[in-house]
Design brief:
- This protein is mostly beta strands.
- The protein has helices at about 10-25, 160-165, and strands spanning about 60, 70-80, 80-90, 95-100, 105-110, 115-120, 135, 145-150, 150, 170-175, 195-200.
- The protein has a six-stranded mixed β-sheet, with no helix packed on it. It has a three-stranded antiparallel β-sheet with strand order 2-3-8, with no helix packed on it.
Length: about 210
């Protein structure tokens, strides 16, 4: 009996299609996202700055090119609290700072190799409460405040800090402030959140 051989091409195409579908399934696996070098969108960032995390980008290091300059002016240990004084200034005499400061008000953090190991237990300095936005003439006189790192993360003690102060830094962060007249309106959509302005001071340079 003579056999009729079927063409192999359709079978080959079916095999390739199956491989293609399998590849698509693997690439769509949410547990293995494609690598990326970009920072998370502002809407997805965690600005609560919890223990064990890093300060997520975008972060602007305070400097003379910024409309507002944030500086950690002094550090002072009092028992289990690290008092952290900061100053906000501007080289533009007409620059105004809108109070209260948002979205993230001046917030002190203790970092070890870039990881948060200490925070402020009490509420951060948000400026006047129960009032509308106020304009502070930061271009003519500094806006100053004092914060307290009074809560260390699990696994960190003040004895650890004292033994190896060079491994630790104090960072004060706050949202980069919009320029213009003070406004009572605050962004409600995460995409409107502003980058963080950052000022750093080594523990070893603390004031006594």
């Amino acid at each position: 009996m003579r056999r009729t051989l079927l063409p192999a091409v359709p079978a080959l195409l079916l095999a390739l299609a199956a491989c293609g579908n399998q590849s698509d399934t693997v690439n769509a696996d949410p547990a293995h996202p494609a690598p990326t070098t970009t920072s998370p969108s502002l809407k997805e960032q965690d600005r609560s700055l919890p223990c064990g995390s890093t300060v997520e980008r975008p972060v602007v290091v305070s400097g003379p090119d910024e409309p507002l300059q944030l500086t950690v002016t002094s550090l002072r240990r009092q028992d289990s609290t690290l008092r952290t004084a900061y100053s906000i200034t501007s080289s533009d005499r007409k620059e105004m700072l809108s109070l209260p400061i948002g979205e993230v008000p001046p917030t002190p953090l203790l970092l070890k190799h870039g990881v948060i190991v200490g925070r402020q237990k009490t509420a951060a300095d948000k400026g006047p409460d129960g009032r509308g936005a106020l304009g502070y003439p930061v271009g003519r006189r500094p806006y100053t405040g004092t914060l307290a790192i009074d809560s260390l993360c699990p696994g960190t003690t003040w004895s650890d800090v004292d033994k190896n102060p060079g491994a630790y830094q104090v960072v004060v962060v706050m949202s980069v402030q919009p320029q213009g007249e003070p406004s009572d309106s605050q962004p409600t959509d995460g995409v409107d959140l502003l980058p963080l302005l950052e000022a750093t001071r080594d523990i070893s340079t603390k004031s006594q």
